[in-house]
Design brief:
This is PORR domain-containing protein. There is one protein chain. By secondary structure, this protein is mainly α. Among the domains are: about 5-30 and about 215-350, no CATH class; about 140-205. The chain is built from 17 helices and eleven strands. The strands form four sheets. The protein has a three-stranded antiparallel beta sheet. The chain has a three-stranded antiparallel beta sheet with strand order 4-6-5. Helix 1 runs antiparallel to helix 13 (about 245-260) and helix 7 packs antiparallel against helix 17 (about 355-405).
Length: about 400
């Protein structure tokens, strides 16, 4: 049976043989930037982003309330932040459509003012927050290793704290990871400067060999152990159905796949930025970053914030279309999002991060509220229909009585 890599080479060779070659063209001399691949829409992967849209919106509103003192806020104050939160309906309408998240009560903002409506977290949401803390605690080592890996892949083994805070949602870091997690591991982390002032950094104190293996390297080791045959680390290429590469690009990809895999944890300071080897390393870094992310996808602008730290080229986003068998770049919602193809089957995420338990629990909370609201609407419709039937019967009786007279 052919290995995955052999299958890819067989596919590429078959397609190359079907096209006459030109001996006067040397594709290896062409610069990488000149190799173009037309972007092709993948409806299934776009749908995977759309499915999470409602959950992300609810999470933003919850976060807004949790960040308030005492985790309470006047309803009218929250309404003023509607645009910032991305709400397209009034806050009261949102609360009606998503019961179970908050409860409301009346109180005075100041001693001499009239009482106004406040909202606070519900008991069910409090239970979820306790469950969230438990999941974070159980997976603390995994979170710590992710943070180490992000630092170990960077060229100077240091990252801006502001940037790490900006990507904490993508990688599943808890809100307080700088305060409660980082100080627990002084053997790995050193915090320099003051967080919040724009000039603070997280440094790697010591190199951990256990963390310096990429997902691809671990996968090759596992395949070698199971088969007893040495498997070279390489990318799993899964071209979309109906996708076609021009002959020039097929030949380049075939030769590029035969290059040795460059680990994202290797020192590549000696590599030419425009070389095929550097391209292999950059693809490896993106593959590892997306593998470490919660949903195996990250908005391209967020990845771009780390261009200097991870040695990305200025035109790094073209990598996602040039290697369409490894990545997909979604344009859903007007935002470019890089996705890892192998992590999905259709629109379902199959490579699940252990921290996704938190999202699953939050989804259960939301869906229970939606079921309750659906039941209430059903009972209301049934009551209205029953009232209308009774009124119709009374009208018939009235008309009959009038005719008898």
């Amino acid at each position: 049976m052919l290995s995955k890599t052999q299958f890819i080479f067989s596919y590429l060779n078959h397609n190359l043989k079907s096209t006459p070659t030109n001996p006067f063209i040397n594709f290896q001399t062409k610069p990488i930037s000149s190799l173009k691949v037309v972007w092709r829409k993948d409806s299934k992967l776009d749908q995977a982003i759309e499915i999470d849209k409602r959950y992300r919106l609810c999470a933003r509103v919850v976060k807004e309330v949790l960040n308030e003192p005492g985790q309470v806020i006047p309803l009218r104050y929250l309404e003023k932040r509607r645009e910032r939160m991305g709400l397209t309906v009034k806050v009261r309408t949102f609360l009606t459509k998503n019961p179970g998240l908050f409860t409301s009560y009346y109180d005075k903002i100041k001693p001499k003012t009239q009482p106004v409506e406040f909202i606070r977290v519900s008991d069910r949401l409090k239970d979820f927050l306790e469950e969230e803390e438990r999941v974070y605690s159980e997976n603390e080592h995994w979170i710590m290793s992710k943070l180490c890996k992000l630092l170990m892949m960077s060229k100077d083994k240091v990252l801006s704290v502001d940037k790490l805070v900006h990507v904490k949602r993508e990688f599943g870091f808890p809100n307080d990871f700088l305060v409660n997690l980082v100080p627990k591991y002084p053997q790995y982390f050193r915090l320099v400067g003051c967080p919040g002032e724009g000039q603070s950094f997280l440094e790697l104190v010591s190199w951990e060999p256990e963390f310096a293996k990429s997902v691809i390297e671990r996968r090759a080791e596992e395949e070698s152990r199971l088969t007893g045959i040495r498997v070279r680390p390489n990318f799993h290429v899964k071209l979309p159905s109906g996708f076609f590469l021009r002959k020039e690009m097929r030949e380049w990809v075939r030769d590029w796949m035969e290059l040795d895999y460059v680990s994202p944890y290797e020192d590549v300071s000696q590599l030419d930025q425009a070389s095929r080897e550097m391209e292999k390393r950059m693809v490896g870094v993106f593959h590892e970053l997306l593998s470490l992310s919660l949903h195996k996808r990250v908005p391209v602008p967020i990845l771009g914030k780390f261009s200097d730290e991870y040695r990305f080229s200025n035109a790094f986003s073209s990598v996602f279309t040039r290697h369409s068998g490894i990545f997909y770049m979604s344009l859903k919602g007007g935002i470019k999002t890089a996705m890892l193809r192998e992590a999905y089957k259709g629109d379902k995420l199959i490579d699940r991060d252990p921290l996704l338990q938190i999202k699953d629990k939050f989804a259960e909370l939301l869906e229970e509220g939606w079921r309750v609201r659906a039941e209430q609407l059903r009972y209301h419709r049934e009551a209205v229909n029953k009232d209308m039937e009774m009124m119709a019967m009374k009208n018939v009786e009235y008309d009959k009585h009038a005719c008898d007279e």
